[in-house]
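In the current project phase, the collection of sequences with tokenised folds has grown. One resulting record follows, to show the layout:
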Amino acid sequence: MNEEKLKQLKIQSEARVRPKASLWMSFAGVTVLTSAAVFYAWPRTADHQRLVDTTRSWKTSSVDAARVDQASVETTPSSSRTEHAGRMEALLTVSGYIVARERIELSPRFMGVVKWMGVKKGESVTNNQVVVLLDDAEPRARLKETAGRLAQAKAAVAKAELDFARVSRLARDDVESKQAEDDARLRVESTKAAVQEVEGQLELIQTHLEWTVIRSPIDGVILERLVDANELVVPQSFGGGRGPSTALLALADLKDLQVEIDLNESDLSKVFLRQKCRVSPEAYPDKAYEAYVAEIAPEANRQKGTLQVKVQIRNPDQFLTPELSAKVEFLDRPSGG
């Protein structure tokens, strides 16, 4: 009886073998699940992008788009925002020529010969620097001559005063007449007047002597040398093109530059005083300079139908050369201005 029960509990050898197909299917399932988990866990760029549901209403999509735009603005660097905000639209673009606001030509005050030229073209000079010396031989000789005349005049005054004192004593003793005393007094006054006259002539000659030393009136750059040493110069022309030179040097302050423009009258409504501008030299189109409208001529050119406008450049540098052409953009009025 017990043997029969044991035979029933005994596992047959055929049942001990596990089916191979089920085992391989289990391994395949585990592999698929692992691959899926790795695929979805791997980070991708698209995960950071917002997707807009196109099935939503138009109003909701607009709100989402505005939020996206706001987010993009907030992520934009501050420097880029500032550059974009400071870029104003150009109402008008015109070409003109770069000029120095003040071109100064130094001229002599009297006819003379250039003795020494101390500067060259393109050289920088400072205010009160000696740049030219004129021949001073003649004024120095006249200075000595006048100084001698002044000494004689002073000696005449001394003699007249002695004569007047002597005549006055004789007049008190009734030796000389009253008329003689008056004549002696008038001679004293006359000689004193002569001294003043010679002193004035002496000061004039000293002034002429100072005029032979010509100094720069500003800090600037020599634009042109108009004469050389040993040339004759005069204060004004004699009327002929072949006469003596009337100017010695031309100089200007290259830190004070403008752009001169002949503006068509049809464009005048787009330009106003103190208007902001942008200047770009034709030689360096990649460079731009801040500027403003400094002057609008009060009178137009009837033949050309133009009006001259001068645009002041704020911070010029070595890339801006007088007489070269430049492009000027007249900018729109600032927002809220």
Remarks:
- The longest helix spans residues 137-172.
- The radius of gyration is 49 Å.
- The mean pLDDT is 80.
